[in-house]
Amino acid sequence: MTVLQMLKPQAGLRVLITGGASGIGLVTARAFIDAGARVHVCDASPDAIDALAKAEARAELNPITATLADVSDRDAVERVFGDVESQLGGLDVLVNNAGIAGPTGGIEEIGVEEWEDTVDVNLNAQFYFARRAVPLLRHAPHGGTIIALSSVAGRLGYAFRTPYAATKWAVVGMVKSLAIELGPTNIRVNAVQPGVVKGPRIERVIAARAKQMNLPYEEMEKQYLAKISLRRMTTPEEVAATALFLCSPAGSGISGQAISVCGNVEVL
């Protein structure tokens, strides 16, 4: 196998992506499909699931299959894995992508329920899915892979976004611990840390921060970009490409790492 050939994931990978019916998750799902994988996604949005189903109904071969599920609901997680086993017959890759932005505000302004919701979706759900995926990943013929979506906020402090940052730091701790635990069974575990990613979600985040800081949206956006060395947002495709690389033979020696795909965000 040449180095160039090593950069492409092996065809036929069985992939589960949480939060995979829109945004980074959907871009990643389609990237895996293009690489010859079979993909199942789950998502909490009925509208996103319906839109995906309509789009996939037009697919001639290898459509993405999906389950409507709240990743923080343990019963829903069990339902997802039932569908994974019936649709894919096993698992080679888990992409723990689902997450929420959480509240924006000073620590004394953040409600306990807002904190708990952020922890439930961004951290607890990653645990729920990893613990169910590992028994399947142990049987992956070429070794299993877990990719956990953290954030650049998982390596930097993030004022007024404490719940979000706390969960994203915790994801990195979980990844590094699982990489040690699961390495002897040929399961690799890594985190991807996107930065300011183009799309509706970051627009909502910037709008919330602009309101909190009493600034126009355009000024707040400029402040975000000024903190990035490349002075531009990251694209969902760049994040998806990193996930594919980690699942390729070229990434087979990488485990226990937190890889920033952010244009070098210097500070938040």
TrEMBL record:
- The yes or no answer to whether the keyword Oxidoreductase is present is yes
Where on the tree of life does the source sit, at the highest rank? Bacteria
**Keyword annotations for this protein?**
Oxidoreductase
Please give the Pfam families that the UniProt record associates with this protein. adh_short_C2 (PF13561)
GO molecular function, one example? oxidoreductase activity
Assigned protein family? Belongs to the short-chain dehydrogenases/reductases (SDR) family.
**How is this protein named in the record?**
3-ketoacyl-ACP reductase
**Protein source organism:** Caballeronia concitans
